[in-house]
Amino acid sequence: MTNVDTLYYKMQSEYDSFIENVKTKSPKEIVEAAYEITYKQDILCLFEDKDCTIISEEQAKVLLAEKFPLDALYEGWMDTDVSVMDDLRDSVKTTSERIADDFMQKNKGVITHEGR
């Protein structure tokens, strides 16, 4: 088994423990944890590919020395200035344009309020 594989299994176990802990919280606390749940799950998804090349074997070995590598990677994400809002904004714009274009073609440019 590679270091990357071992790291993935360690982080999956960490995630499972995290989720079990979240389940003991109040509904309000669970909602507040939703972002962390989502992004920790997304980080895990990056490692699910059999031929994962997101990190090297050496980097995986170093991360394995961390007590909570998933948490370390999540905190790294939180410390970045990257936002998914630009991607979301582009997706909403593109999808809205496509839906409007489809509608205009089907209805010959007549806009109604049906379908709301």
Write up what this structure looks like.
By secondary structure, the chain is mostly helical. Helix content is 69%, strand content 0%. It has helices at 3-22, 27-32, 34-46, 57-64, 69-78, 85-107. The protein starts with a helix and ends in a 9-residue tail after the last helix. The relative contact order is 0.11.
Topology of this structure?
Blueprint: H1 3-22, H2 27-32, H3 34-46, H4 57-64, H5 69-78, H6 85-107
Defining key terms:
0% strand; 116 residues; elongated
Structure summary:
With 116 residues, the protein is mostly helical.
Beta-strand residue fraction: under 5%
- Which structural class do the helices and strands define? mainly alpha
Mean pLDDT: 91
Number of strands: 0
Q: Oligomeric status of the shown chains?
A: single chain
What composes the largest sheet? Answer: none
* Uncertain stretches: none
Q: CA-to-CA gap between the ends?
A: 53 Å
Count of alpha/pi helices: 6
Helix proportion range = 55-70%
Give the topology string: H per helix, E per strand: HHHHHH
Rg, Å, rounded = 21 Å
The best one-word shape is elongated
